Amino acid sequence: MPDTVATVVTEWVHVSYAEPTPMREVYGYAGTQGTINVEGIRMLPGSRPSKTLLIFMHPASTLQLLPVPRAMAAAGLHVLCAGSRYARNDTPLIMEKLLLDYGAYVGHAREVWGYEKIIVCGWSGGGSLSAFYQAQAERRTVTHTAAGDPIDLGDLIPGDAFIWQAAHLSRADVLADFIDPSVLDENDPTIRDPELDLYDPRNPHQPPYDQAYLDRFRAAQLARVRRRTALVKELLHDIRSGRTGENERGLLTHRTLADPRWLDPTIDPNDRRPGWCFLGEPKASNSSPAGVARFSTLRAWLSQWSIDDSQARALDNAPSITVPLLAIENSADDAVPQPHTRLFLDAAGSADKRMETIAGADHYYAGQPEELDQAVRIIIDWLRERKLLED
User: Fold this and answer.
1) Tally of structural domains, the chain
2) 265: which DSSP letter?
3) Is the distance from CB of 94 to CB of 28 less than 8 angstroms?
4) Whether residue 262 sits in one domain with residue 153
5) pLDDT digits (tens, 9 = 90+) for 152-177
6) By C-alpha distance, which of 95, 79, 92, 98 is closest to 40?
7) Which domain holds residue 283?
8) 103-126 b/e (C-beta count within 10 Å ≥ 16 → b)
């Protein structure tokens, strides 16, 4: 069992910095004053001091209600759950701008709070974001967003170590694996090819799927993503020409949760529950409002969802990461495809890197205190071995 303390103290964190912008991306007063305001929750183990801070950040989710950060704090660690400017709304999300948000938190942690060591922690969708941040902090290469808009990342402060936990390779990678290729008419999702509809009982292809069908299915998924991207680029070109009188436009993409892995446990096998995914029953999730990439602006599509344009793909950024790396795979993960953790680890430039697997753990450690404790213990021991955490 990890070390525990009696009380986890939580405090609201507000960080702001100037960023002039010609166009509002988020709703509300805070985004109208030429200032970016980001909010997070710092979790502290009572009054126990530490020189090390673990930062968890996700592109759009807030993480303080998850089991992992609180368990870390209860075990004696200082943890920051850092919310982005796009908290709970990824429609206009630009991955490159998130690096500025992340950098603002790191600067605050060092300069205001006085932490000496920063541990960059990437959980779930935060994995590729954190890898993007660390890579650019170590070796800056990005000068424009995926849509071609200039961006100045300034001097990002790198973390001292990197933890990849139950994380996928990028939003673009998972969309290419999740999107439903059966849709024939983007304006009417009821018009579908039944042979490519995993949830249509008329589909003659049923689990376990043969390789020829999977190859056809994956090719159709990629083709649909690329058709959407081609449309996005065409619309963005029209907007930039001045013909439309717009700065941006919204995009609706139907049916985006249809990964054969969820129905066929023989594909990239692990201990996941068949017929289930991280959002529940796959057929219902496929058309739910919470489906990945359901709503997006044109620029956001290119930045986070386009497999050919996103600069936040972890395999592209991993070689630039040289700090010590711990990668944790949950063996019953129903969100992250099983190969992703090993692929990231192998691609990372770190000389000091280790992979651990938590047997039986699902994506959230929901109702799994023993698996959660094991993950926390692995992290604490790994940090202490590298003198990144006080004994």
Assistant:
1) 2
2) T
3) no
4) no
5) 999 999 999 999 999 999 999 999 99
6) 79
7) 174-305
8) bbbbbbbeeeeebebbbbbbbbbb
